[in-house]
Amino acid sequence: MSIKAIHTPCKNCVFAKYDGKTQTDCHLDMTTKFSSKGIEIIKAYDEEKEFDIINGKKCYGYRENKYFVSRGLEEADIEEKINYVKQFFKINYLMIINIKNFDYDTMYSLAQEIKSLAIKPQNVVLIRYQEDKNKYGYSFLHNFFDRCGNLDKWKIQTVIDSNESQESIIYKIINTNKSNRFVMYINEDFSGFDKVIKRAQETIYQDFSTFEILSNKNKDSLFFNSSVYSYAIYYGYNILQSKDKYEIVQ
Fold it and tell me: What is the torsional sign of CA 226, 194, 124, 127?
């Protein structure tokens, strides 16, 4: 039995249940959930404790006490801490929208779809080209964002050079929004993009699995890992061009 490079020792996690020095369970039920998906749970020990190691995965529920101290929650009971961290068990993504192929009515329809999302983006960036500044003025776009509901952040990215490639534009946006782990890129058709986001959430937080690129039926709404995209672009490869790797979400 070997411990993989990626793993999570439960030893110092606030949510590890102990009977004396021996871990017996997890307050978030994470070890049971990982085990049910076929992920190996190793029983380990050292001079201080006997504890579990989740082998091959980073546990998104792992929190040490210093995490709660830094947030003034060191005196909170375990249920309060559980409720606090569970609000963050949502996929962190940036939404990039290329509005070149949209008209006013379509923009407003998209705004309504964004407003109704169960898991909203942490940030939204609209790609607007210089020649479309009059068509999509600030007042119109501000109204668009108002219709999207409560968004944490939004921005208008105006592209000066109409010949600049989409991969270059996306790359620049991602690299100025590095706090977002994933990207939802909408190029034209956004039908079913809510299902794409839901699938991403389920894959990461329920199945403890991964994906390359999730897509709607028309391959115009794409969900992918921002770091993987940036890394590939840096070495001259655009993962979005590999349409055979798209996982279509119906």
Answer: positive
pTM of this prediction? 0.90
Is the distance from CB of 246 to CB of 222 less than 8 angstroms? yes
Q: Is residue 187 located within the same domain as residue 217?
A: yes
Q: Which domain holds residue 202?
A: 93-248
Q: Tokens in use for 199?
A: 């699938």
Same domain as 101, residue 121 = yes
Are 116 and 229 contained in the same domain?
yes
CB 222 within 8 A of CB 185: yes
pLDDT in tens, 36-66: 999 999 999 999 999 999 999 999 999 999 9
Helical residues (DSSP H) of the chain, grouped into ranges: 30-36, 65-69, 78-86, 104-115, 138-147, 166-175, 193-205, 226-234
- Tell me if 196 sits within 8 A of 215, measured CB to CB: yes
| CA distances to 27, 32, 223 from 246, in Å | 37, 31, 10
- What is the average pLDDT score of the chain? 95
